[in-house]
């Protein structure tokens, strides 16, 4: 691991490349998942229409998405696309469950007292959804990393962690494999801790 | 200018169970009324229809003012907030901290203590304070004195009478003495 960091073979560029793409996919999935869940919570027809798509996305293997993405997109966008697809249904499903679990009695109170939307969101909606959303983030952060790197391994875009893992496979270089795996675990762990800390502060 | 609240031939049923049968009544602005009747006779349902929370089965309700404040059958407080913030949730910045503190003080409550640490009776008084801090043209209360002892109830009634003067007051109760203390006419459902 030490050799990888100090070896001058573009370690930080490689890590940065993969990290940026997985983070992008994660944030896009988070944003889309929350937006769609809010729409589905508000309009039942959206929930009904999205149901088969979400079930399908959840069930399709990562490898199928990767091949599809290689046909449709460039390999550089692979990790973002696959991470996005892994995060989206988890965030959507959990957030929608949270929306449905929001205390209807409090919503009625807010309706009668004509509490403005901003305060309703802050004091009624967010406290109701918070635990569901945080749980979705915790699950999907790990998923984003695992699926993103797996996608890179199949598509091996140049300069990515996945490409380095691919070369470990080709050359049977187990030392490199373990070192990169350890870095992925560390990065995923650090990203999760920092993100969850920020999210908890934001939703407090 | 507030108008009469008019209920005309209102009926409502839960499935086969008819709870309100062709009820008609007019509430003049500033009137004070207590709804009484046996459990399950539709008192809370009538309040919920007036509040716009459930649509009438048949009949009409009109003249309900825009600005309503209410004490619900349950307290419906934000448990993570303190008493003052529960009031601020509905008033925004229209009421000063001292006005909120004074009202809570009149009801024997501390503004800074989280509601989750309150007893049932204290929570009830916060719910009452929320309806009185900036009372609506119509103030609706569903069994507001649940869980209050006689001395506290008398204090609370004094505050309600003071704060709802000139407002239309509609209270659900099972106790005729409460109607007398609130200077309200009794409507049997």
Keywords:
A: MetI-like fold; elongated; B: 189 residues; alpha/beta; 5-stranded parallel β-sheet; globular
What would you note in describing this structure?
The complex is a heterodimer of chains A (204) and B (189). Chain A is built from 9 helices and no strands. Chain A is an all-alpha fold. Chain A has one domain (7-202): MetI-like fold. In chain A, helix 2 runs antiparallel to helix 3 (44-59). Chain A is elongated, with a radius of gyration of 20 Å. In chain B, helix 2 (83-91) packs across helix 3. The longest helix of chain B is centred in the C-terminal third of the chain and has 14 residues, at 150-163. The relative contact order of chain B is 0.21. In chain B, the strands form 2 sheets. Chain B has a 5-stranded parallel beta sheet with strand order 5-6-7-3-8, sandwiched between helices. A 3-stranded antiparallel beta sheet of chain B has the order 2-1-4, covered by helices on one side. Chain B contains 6 helices and 8 strands. The model of chain B has no long low-confidence stretch (mean pLDDT 92). Chain B has 189 residues and is α/β, with parallel strands linked by helices. At the A-B interface, helix 6 and helix 7 of A face strand 5 of B.
């Amino acid at each position: 691991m030490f050799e990888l960091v100090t070896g001058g073979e573009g370690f930080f560029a490689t890590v940065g490349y993969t990290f940026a793409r997985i983070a992008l996919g994660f944030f896009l999935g988070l944003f889309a998942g929350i937006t769609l869940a809010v729409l589905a919570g508000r309009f039942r027809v959206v929930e009904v229409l999205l149901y088969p798509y979400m079930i399908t996305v959840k069930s399709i293997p990562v490898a199928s998405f990767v091949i599809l993405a290689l046909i449709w997109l460039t390999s550089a966008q692979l990790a973002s696309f696959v991470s996005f697809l892994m995060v989206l249904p988890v965030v959507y499903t959990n957030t929608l469950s949270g929306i449905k679990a929001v205390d209807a009695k409090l919503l009625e109170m807010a309706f009668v007292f004509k509490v403005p939307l901003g305060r309703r969101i802050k004091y009624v909606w967010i406290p109701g959804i918070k635990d569901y959303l945080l749980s979705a983030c915790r699950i999907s952060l790990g998923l984003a990393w695992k699926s993103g790197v797996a996608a890179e391994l199949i598509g091996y875009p140049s300069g990515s962690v996945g490409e380095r893992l691919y070369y470990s496979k080709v050359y049977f270089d187990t030392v490199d494999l373990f070192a990169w795996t350890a870095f992925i675990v560390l990065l995923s762990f650090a990203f999760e801790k920092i993100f969850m800390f920020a999210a908890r502060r934001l939703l407090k | 200018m507030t108008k009469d609240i008019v209920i005309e031939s209102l009926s409502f049923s839960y499935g086969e169970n008819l709870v309100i049968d062709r009820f008609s009544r007019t509430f003049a602005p500033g009137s004070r009324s207590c709804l009484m009747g046996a459990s399950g006779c539709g008192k809370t349902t009538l309040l919920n229809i007036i509040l716009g929370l459930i649509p009438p089965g048949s009949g009409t309700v009109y003249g309900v003012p825009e600005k309503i404040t209410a004490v619900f059958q349950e307290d419906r407080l934000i448990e993570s907030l303190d008493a003052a913030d529960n009031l601020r949730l509905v008033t925004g910045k229209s009421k000063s901290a001292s006005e909120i503190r004074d009202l809570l003080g009149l009801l024997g409550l501390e503004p800074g203590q989280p509601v989750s640490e309150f007893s049932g009776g204290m929570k009830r008084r916060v719910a009452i304070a929320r309806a009185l801090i900036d009372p609506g043209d119509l103030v609706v209360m569903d069994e507001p004195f649940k869980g209050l002892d006689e001395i506290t109830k008398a204090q609370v009634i004094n505050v309600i009478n003071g704060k709802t003067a000139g407002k239309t007051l509609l209270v659900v109760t099972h106790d005729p003495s409460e109607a007398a203390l609130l200077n309200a006419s009794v409507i049997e459902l």
